[in-house]
Design brief:
The complex is a heterodimer. By secondary structure, chain A is mostly helical. Chain A is 79% helix and 0% strand. Chain A has one domain: Orthogonal Bundle (ABC transporter involved in vitamin B12 uptake, BtuC), CATH 1.10.3470. Chain A starts with a helix and ends with a helix. Classes of the chains: A mainly alpha, B alpha/beta.
């Protein structure tokens, strides 16, 4: 292996594969836990607008604090948290929260945030524009080692925290009232899961844009094999999510070589039909 | 005196003193007091909207009380954690449904949540208790079935199995027999009665079946517009004046020839 080959392998390919794995794990973990928490098989960070919240945070930090390395993930986390809060408040009603209401709230938050994102991108100059549109669809080509380390740390912590809530999530999945009656501190669990999911999504989006549908596809695949117990679903979603995004990114990289597709286009290609299937089955 | 108090505190008792529950600005439940002693069954009767479910929800601190005090084994219930409450009080609420493929066994095991660590797995003992309770509820070999594939009646029995699996000393049941056929209605009340007689448990049951209440309850609370209209043994509460006042129906009262309990027949 010559210097050039080793540079490609270790400086370009490897960080990209590793980042893809941690991003995939993060998004799948967030999706699996949000689904159980909201008792909604269609809950997904991208569809709920959480990813767009993070994307807006990232973009704002890019415009205002471009120099600061830490501003991006922090602002992304803040954006994801705000979007989560907004969707949750909108979807909640006196009679509880049904599937359709949540999905609709997600659509509204997503499109609203998208329009702000579009507005901001058109205010940016043209050279940045293309990379931003690309990034918005989910793009791992900008992978760096630092980006990877941060997502790795957050993904590992997220997996531990969410696994620790898995048993409570099992009860919440059955019903919020039920969970409360049988000993779950519902408010506390909800806060922990929302905050962790927002952190996972925020850090992923800051590193690679919004890769959609991973949080939908992966937990459903996992449930088909291991059943509905979150103590299995949560950790396995992490592992399968990592594999899934690395595979999807490989396809994105070679499908129309030498040009590249954003990885989010590939995941959406698989995810959208699955979403329709799940909605119909409901 | 101190020994007496200790003794009293060890009884599994739910003491409700003068509670009022507000929904918005309206008082849905007003000035209700009663004592649930170990081994006893109380039936909560009243027309729709009388505040029965609201009252039941307050009893495990799911709803806050605006006034009054509820104590469980001598401790104020709003000072206890959810786990502590769930270990002592099990609830059978009106039907729950989930869109996830939860198995019957997983559902029943969720009743063991308050006993184990917040994370981790159920013990062998938890599993054994869950399987035993399924068998008690006539659901042997149902453990791997999925909740969303069961009939309403089967689901209701799984919900009972989960409540029994908690080993809680107090059972709160909100129309537990609504979806059940006759045989299983009798089974459910027999199981609850057995628990109360042998294990020192006690139960509060909301029901619309006056005769079930008469057969199984030690005490009846008759509710109208959030207030207690009558309280006491079935014989003294199930009178034609009381029933006329609360349900606005005319009834014929006589005695069940087998159980010698009061029997109520509505006159149409």
């Amino acid at each position: 292996m010559n210097d050039q080959q080793s540079a490609i392998l270790f400086d370009i390919r490897l960080p990209r594969i590793l980042l893809g794995a941690t991003v995939g794990a993060s998004l799948a973990l967030a999706g699996a836990s949000l689904q159980s928490l909201l008792r909604n098989p269609l809950a997904e960070p991208y569809l709920l607008g959480v990813s767009n919240g993070a994307a807006l945070g990232t973009m704002l930090s890019f415009i205002f604090f471009a120099q600061s390395e830490y501003a991006r993930p922090l602002m992304a986390f803040a954006g994801a948290s705000l979007a989560t809060f907004a969707v949750y408040q909108m979807a909640k009603s006196r009679s509880g929260m049904n599937v359709e209401r949540l999905v609709l709230s997600g659509v509204i938050v997503t499109t609203f945030l998208s329009s702000i994102l579009v507005l901001l991108t058109s205010l940016l100059d043209a050279t940045k524009l293309r990379s931003f549109t690309f990034w918005l669809l989910g793009d791992l080509s900008q992978a760096t080692k630092n980006g990877f380390y941060l997502t790795l740390i957050v993904a590992v912590i997220g997996m531990i925290v969410l696994s620790s809530q898995a048993r409570a999530l099992n009860l919440l999945m059955i019903g919020e009232r039920d969970a409360f009656d049988f000993g779950v501190e519902v408010t506390k669990t909800r806060l922990i899961v929302f905050a962790t999911a927002a952190a996972l999504v925020g850090i992923s989006v800051a590193a690679s844009g919004s890769v959609g549908y991973v949080g939908l596809i992966v937990p459903h695949l996992v449930r088909l094999v291991v059943g509905s117990d979150n103590r299995l679903v949560v950790p396995f979603s992490g592992i399968v999510g990592a594999t899934f995004v690395v595979l999807a990114d490989t396809i994105a990289r070679v499908a129309i070589a030498p040009r590249e597709l954003p990885v989010g286009a590939i995941t959406a290609l698989v995810g959208a039909p699955l979403f329709i299937y799940l909605l119909k089955r409901n | 005196m101190r020994i007496l108090r200790l003794f009293a505190a060890n009884q599994n008792m739910l003491n409700v003193q003068n509670i009022t529950i507000n929904y918005g600005v309206c008082a849905v439940v007003q000035n209700i007091s009663f004592l649930l002693e170990a081994g006893k069954i109380i039936a909560l009767l009243g027309a729709k909207g009388a505040g029965k479910t609201t009252l039941l929800k307050a009893l495990n601190a799911s709803l806050p009380t605006a006034d009054g005090e509820i104590t469980l084994d001598g401790k104020r219930i709003d000072k206890l954690s959810r786990r502590e409450i769930a270990r002592r009080i099990a609830v059978i609420a009106q039907e729950t449904e989930t869109k996830f493929p939860v198995s019957v066994l997983e559902f029943v095991l969720s009743g063991r949540f308050a006993h184990g660590a917040a994370f981790g797995w159920e013990t062998e003992r938890d599993l054994q208790i869950a399987l035993d309770c399924l068998e008690l509820c006539d659901l042997k070999n149902y453990d791997n079935r999925r909740m969303n594939q069961l009939s309403g009646g089967e689901r209701q029995r799984v919900v009972l199995a989960r409540a029994l699996a908690t080993e809680a000393k107090i059972l709160l049941l909100d129309e537990p027999t609504a979806n059940l056929d006759l045989a299983h209605q009798a089974m459910m009340f027999r199981l609850i009665k057995e628990r109360c007689e042998n294990a020192g448990s006690s139960a509060i049951v909301i029901t619309h079946d006056l005769n079930l209440a008469s057969e199984f309850a030690d005490e009846i609370l008759l509710l109208k517009n959030g207030k207690i209209t009558a309280k006491g043994e079935p014989q003294t509460v199930l009178t034609s004046e009381n029933l006329q006042q609360v349900f606005d129906v005319k009834v014929l009262l006589d005695e069940n020839p087998i159980s010698k309990k009061r029997r109520v027949t509505t006159i149409y």
